[in-house]
Amino acid sequence: MSALERLKGWEAMMLALLCAIVALNGVWSPYFLSVGNFVNLFQLSIEKSIVALTMALVIIGGEIDLSVASVMGLAACVMAWTFHEGAPMPLAVLLALAAGALAGLNNAFWIAKVGLPSLAVTLAGLIGYRGVARILLEDRAIGGFPDWFNTLGQQALIGPLTAAILIFFLLFVFFAIVLHGSAFGRLVYVVGSNVQAARYSGVRVGLVKSALFVGSAFVAALAGILYAARLGSVRGDMAEGFELDVITAVLLGGVSIFGGKGNLVGVGLSLLVILNLRNGMGLANITGNTQNDVIGGLLILSVLIPNMWQDLHNKWKGRET
Amino acid sequence: MTGAEDSADGATAVAPVLEIRRVAKRFDATQALDDVSLSLHAGEIHALLGENGAGKSTLIKIITGVHQPDRGQIMLAARSVTIRSAADAQRLGIAAIYQEPLLFPDLNVAENIFISHQDRGAVVSWAQMFHEAESILAELGVALDVRSPARGLTLAAQQSVEIAKAISLNVRILIMDEPTASLSAHEVQELFKLVRDLKRQGVAILFVSHRMEEVFEIADKVTVFRDGRLISTRARLEATPQGAIADMVGREIDLTKTRATAARTDLVLSVSALGRQGVFEGVTFDLHRGEVLGFAGLIGAGRTDVGLALFGIEPATSGTILLNDKPVAIRSPRDGMKLGIAYVSEDRRQLGLVLPMSIFANVTLPVLRRYLNRFGLVRTSLERGTADAFRARLAIRAPSVDLEVAKLSGGNQQKVMLSKWLNTDPSILILDEPTRGVDVGSKAEVHAIIAQLATEGIGIIVISSDLPEVLALSDRVLVMREGRQMAILDRAEANQETVMTAAMGQRPANSLDGSAP
Description:
The complex is a heterodimer. Chain A has 14 helices and four strands. Chain A is mostly helical. Chain B has three domains: about 20-100 and about 155-250, Rossmann fold, CATH 3.40.50.300; about 260-340 and about 425-435 and about 460-515, 3-Layer(aba) Sandwich (Rossmann fold), CATH 3.40.50; about 340-425, P-loop containing nucleotide triphosphate hydrolases (Rossmann fold, 3-Layer(aba) Sandwich), CATH 3.40.50. Chain B has helices at about 55-65, 85-90, 110-115, 125-140, 155-170, 185-200, 210-220, 240-250, 305-310, 335-340, 350, 360-365, 380-395, 410-420, 440-455, 465-475, 495-505; strands at about 20-25, 30-40, 45-50, 70-75, 80, 95, 175, 205-210, 220-225, 230-235, 265-275, 280-290, 290-295, 320-325, 325, 340-345, 430, 460-465, 475-480, 485-490.
């Protein structure tokens, strides 16, 4: 009951923050409040937003996946390379998705079957998958994809919304249902809260974890393909460092780094907060480095404030007798 | 050993070492302590009794500096003191030992003993530390390798390390919060020898326990708490267990009442020569419908391991298991569950329950599949219905089944765990320490539930270190020692003496036959 209240409190805080940022930005720059700007804003980091959805599931499950950005790069490079070698584009896309799934299976094997910590396994993945991507493309940038592919990432389909944005919304709804409505989602919370109790209750922990990592890598591969479609060309260092932005968004969304706590609504709000904050700062001519400092500070505050609130709450309660 | 020998004889015979004066403490809507006064003298063992939530823990937390009292005073040797933190308490010569030892699993035994010594400087002399640790343990009569990590020690051994830790700090006031909850009868006696030693050295001991016979064996004074108030303080010689229980619960409870014996008719489980390499071997017994088979023995005798093997968590490596006359292989908890076996763990908090989740989510967890609609989504209304039914049936005291399990008392958590496994419709129920850390009232309720389940035809195995409990519940008692089955005693021949004799390695002449009748 009170866990639910706490979550709601968190979301209310994020929502208030979001409104404040939007209002402030609107005052500073009249251009900010246009629909075009909002869509543009969203579009600019849509791939990270997509990956944040599965990252939220992984972290709620008590694990972490540091390899997502490298899997994005790997998938895009596999696609570009096979296309460059003469494969038709649809086949290249399928192979890229397969490469993502394979990377996820590799992560899952070491984590769920062998029992190594995901931090180490996916750190190795971060390095290893990036290595494969760079071997495939060396120093080249491969582009010249068919038009239908490029429009996937660049052209508005419904109203001002591009395919990538639509895919994000579909996945958001899908994963929200999976996490909050399905048996699998329940087991993700259980495994993230107490993996031993899960085992003693007959939960197939290995299967749950495997599904999380394969899903995470598969969605990362999809995001990598969409990123390639938006940029129109692929390089070996594509999406490098994205994993940290993704994890930041998830944690700011109220997901506990220790697992077992959080929800997708919080993550959605946190994505909007970060986007609007960055955009507002951009419009106010604040440099990227300073923007990073602000986001970092926000992350610390997001952990600090609920704790301080709890302390104050306790003290106040203690005094009234 | 630390040079802190300053005030070993500071306490006089007249003034109490510790005096609590009219202390009160409130949390939210709960008055945890209400106008409590209590004094503790040097060389005195003062027992605190009370159901969970009666205020014992709050008092302990105030004395150890975890909580600050809203009102009232704490006097140490006739001086008023404020204890703001555990470090303050330690400086004042107060130490506490808890039911669940708080050791650092990756540090070795010696490091754990000296963990609180902040005056040892930056450079650790390992040889000296090992030597000092060994001499403390030798004084206690405990055989432990001070170089081995705390991980993997039995609970009893961890408890000894905690006591060694307190001794190394030269405590004057030692608080023991259910120190015997996880110990077997033999280990309790070892601990008591130690406690009496400390008493002779003039240490004042505050002793919290749910085991009445222990309290009356060791305490000089007995204080009973109920609902945050101090109900009575009596010298042990003037108090009686029945009177103390009546004070605790406000009603009379008879814990020694034994159940009616079941007729042994339908065989459900037949185990022969069951073993797991290096853990236990040669376990042979039959279990009938409606029978309660007790597993007695010291901690570490392998009783829990047999339970884990039957449920499939740590599968057996030898022997055969016949379920309803058919041989079965149990390789995982899912195998166990499919065969109608349920195992209720001794460790509620780590292995039994998902504490941050709701009562209903815990109850339905093993059979979540049953609660899905045709789209694969969980029907929480159905889950709540099941949980509500169990809440009524087992008298789980919670305002709603949406409540986090972490917020329940030990007894109610135990009932949630029972609900969870009863919901799998087991034909065999293995209960591991079903009343550990549970208050007297809930304990009687859990016993009644077990008796009721047996009449409903479930075959029940009760693993317990609480010998009176095993004797009160069981139709037969299987006794283990060091991974071997020593005896199976019929109710008629099972008593404290025969069970302990077998558990200590003396085989009673006529009880070797594993497969009665």
